[in-house]
Amino acid sequence: MSWIWFHKLGSPKWFYQWSSKWATAVFLIGLLATLIGVGWGLGFAPTDYQQGETYRIIYLHVPAAVLAESCYFSLGVAGFVYLVWQMKMAPIFIKSMAPIGAAMAAIALLSGAIWGKPTWGTWWVWDARLTSVLVLFILYMGIIALQNTLEDVTLANQAAAIVSVLGLINLPIIKYSVNWWNTLHQPASFSLTKKPTMPMDMWLPLLIAVIGFYCLVAGLAMWRMQSEILLRERRTQWVKEKVMNDGV
After folding, report:
1. Residue 67 is part of which domain span?
2. Does 115 map to a domain?
């Protein structure tokens, strides 16, 4: 098995050139899928026999919650890669992805509160699932703070990587909290490993929305990484040549 691709991913110049070809297309695909999935779910999916129309918030809440966890998992992987191999792209990825993941966690918390009010009669309870997602949001904000306040870039990268890795322990707590403890939060509405509990005209738009969110996040992350690469590599010859050629 060749590891050439792995070493290429560690090259800021190679990643910048590669991502420049794909970022816009991936983002637009994500935007289209998100509009279709969320629009279909909010406007055309059948009404739930138990929760009525209020269940439709899942077409925003579930994709945001899934991406909040997925983004943090990717931060943990990047943090491990940086701590073990000192790959230059890893802290760039962490700094670029953390604000996006924080936004996903915030959307999940806010939409969950909106859903919880008519369902539970309250905006917030210190439920195991809700509390662990709040911890996830706090972890994101901590990583963002570390990378933006520490003047020593190397120290900031190391600190953010350590928090990213240590915070992975929260992900199984989020996932299995509804099974481990007696919580108000319902079990997962959507799973790739189990047969859907909803009819197809309810779960299909949800699946499309989740795919759309993944593509949106991927496109945004690539754009943010490109900006961070230009900032960190501004003294390199290839960036200077690019700036001159672009007339910036």
Report:
1. 58-242
2. yes
